[in-house]
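[Meeting: bench + compute handoff]

Bench side (C.D.) handed over the final construct sequence. Compute side (W.E.) agreed to return the predicted structure before the next meeting so the bench team could plan truncations. Sequence as handed over:
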Amino acid sequence: MNLQAWLFFLDESGFSAVSPLKRTWAPRGETPTQYTRLDHHDRLNLIGGLGVTPARRKIRLHLQAHGRSITGEEVKRFLTHLLQQIPGPIVLVWDQHPIHRRTSVQEFIEAHSRLQVYEFPTSAPELNPAEMVWTQITEYVAGTAPHDTTELYDIVYAAVARTRRSRHRLWACIHASKLPWTRSSLEH
């Protein structure tokens, strides 16, 4: 692994108009209810990369939003964004999702020598720090009941902004993963 490269953990996730439930307080026997007019198929899909500089001095969250399912074209668009924003080599670590293995995505990677790509083992989301970003966003979105897609987007974007502007939250994603995170473990 190139120790002079930015290290990016990449993942995709979606957020539905039907938000996850969250515990709350209510008078005994009065279960709180929330209603939304949106269909549960209304979603905001995100592709994101949590990046760390070689000396671990900087950490960044890069995201792109899509109102439809994420395809290989969106993956290529996101990788193009990273290549434009980050100088020098980029080590990318992601899961074995089929969209990462699309022929067009693989050809894109081969055409950009600045990208070095590694895969997490099958069924190991606990290793990917980007998964922890989704956990933080889900926690923020939980218990909301957006009335329209604009409100859904606003809630998700507020959650993203809260996570993005907090170095503490971003580093918590790194440290919460089950990935070994010592310099010697990165050198092997």
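W.E. noted at the follow-up: The beta strands are 6-16, 43-52, 59-66, 90-94, 115-119. C.D. will use this when planning the next construct.
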